[in-house]
Amino acid sequence: MKLAILSRGPKSYSTSRLKEAALKRGHKVKVLNTLKFAIDLEELNPDLYYNKKTIKRL
Question: Rounded to the nearest 10 degrees, how much is the dihedral formed by the CA atoms of 12, 10, 29, 14?
Fold first, then answer.
């Protein structure tokens, strides 16, 4: 399973422990800084960006 951990401190103890536990269970993990998100709220077509790149829809 792919997981994303939203955290402002990717090297903080709690974030590191969450990532470590997920990796130990075989998950793929990315830590994403919450301050690097942007939202385009166009009517009927909202988009979510991370580091100026569109996040793919599920």
Answer: 20
Copy the structure tokens of residue 39.
Answer: 């939202």
Q: pLDDT tens-digit profile of 5-50?
A: 999 998 999 999 999 999 999 999 999 999 999 999 988 888 999 9
Q: How far apart are the first and last CA of the chain?
A: 14
Contact 3, 15 (CB under 8 A): no
Q: What is the CATH number that goes with domain 2-54? A: 3.40.50.20
Of 32, 11, 9, 29, which is closest to residue 21 (Cα–Cα)?
A: 29
Put simply, whether the predicted model's pTM sits higher than 0.85 gets the answer no
